[in-house]
Design goal:
Double Clp-N motif; 4 strands; alpha+beta
Length: 196
């Protein structure tokens, strides 16, 4: 269980990420599901990146897609990013717009939800418990589906990227369209790269 100190309602509290029934999804589990080292790195860094941005409590099935896409654009240099570049997409510009959309979405979520509900933790301190697995599960399942559909025995960052584009909500779709990214062209470009 990862704990991140965060100030909520003027007092520092623990923000705990509970994944998959109380334990953070680990590398071995993802490796057992045939995720590549690169894809595992993207997934394992989502929680710390959310905590660094103070958006842990705002993660849902759509904001996790934006955070994952931003992570791929900023931290990976693999097939998915090469495919975007071949499509004449400017990764830095797309990352900026994704980041802006993520910030806006999280602000809207905070406004709708109000302050996070504090819980008394086993050590007696107050904390916020964040379920990270629920919003992450659809992305992982969709990435596995993308790999299977392409006949691949691995799940890489390119499959995560395809899953993100396929699962994108209207807000993220608008950002992707603005940068000329659509699922069909991206998938075709990924396949071309992998065949060379």
């Amino acid at each position: 269980m990862n704990a991140i100190k965060r100030t909520i309602t003027n007092e520092p509290v623990e923000v705990l990420g509970l994944i998959a029934g109380g334990t953070k999804m680990n590398n071995e589990e993802l490796a057992g599901r045939h995720f590549t080292t690169s894809a595992i790195h993207i997934v394992e860094q989502l929680w710390p990146r959310a905590a660094d941005r103070s958006i842990s409590t705002e993660l849902n099935d759509q904001t996790i897609l934006m955070l994952a896409l931003w992570s791929i654009l900023r931290w990976e240099r693999k097939v998915g990013l090469v495919a975007l570049e071949r499509m004449k997409v400017e990764p830095d510009a797309l990352a900026r717009d994704v980041n802006e959309s993520l910030h806006t979405a999280c602000a809207e979520i905070r406004q709708q939800m109000g302050p996070p509900k504090l819980q008394k933790l086993p050590g007696g301190q107050l904390g916020v418990v964040v379920d990270f697995n629920t919003p992450l599960a659809p992305l992982l399942a969709a990435a596995e589906h993308e790999a299977l559909e392409l006949g691949h025995s691995w799940v890489g960052s390119e499959h995560l990227l395809l899953a993100i584009v396929r699962l994108a909500d209207p807000r993220l779709c608008d950002v992707l369209k603005m940068h000329g990214v659509n699922y069909g062209d991206l998938k075709e470009t990924v396949v071309e790269i992998l065949q060379t």
